[in-house]
Amino acid sequence: MKFIPSPRKWREKFRASIRDKAISRAQTRILLAGRKAEDFSEHELEIIVCEEESKIRSDIREKGLITIAAVFGLGWWL
Question: Which residue in 9, 18, 39, 70 could disulfide with 5, CB within 3.0 to 4.6 Å?
Fold first, then answer.
């Protein structure tokens, strides 16, 4: 019998993957600004990562809505 993880574990895994991606994007953003992570306080780094998490979540929502519209054939009007 195969073990199926609970929805809670899926949510935790999903949140962790978003967090990892946000950290990666934050590091890139800091490097592109010509600075180092050490130049920022822990609070400032957390703010940058939270901003990146928000961007990722909004991208996911936007792509989800476009996918739903495409499934229902609403792509003609978009």
Answer: 9
Of 63, 61, 50, 62, the residue nearest 21 (C-alpha): 50
- Say if residues 19 and 46 touch (Cβ distance below 8 Å): no
* Alpha carbon distances (Å) from 75 to 7, 29, 62, 65, 69: 31, 33, 14, 11, 6
Q: Where are the domains of the chain?
A: 7-77
Contact (CB, 8 A) for 56 and 22 = yes
Name the nearest CA neighbour of 25 among 57, 64, 67, 62: 57
Mean of the pLDDT values across residues 3-28? Answer: 89
Q: Answer yes or no: are the C-beta atoms of 59 and 21 closer than 8 Å.
A: no
End-to-end CA separation in angstroms for the chain:
45
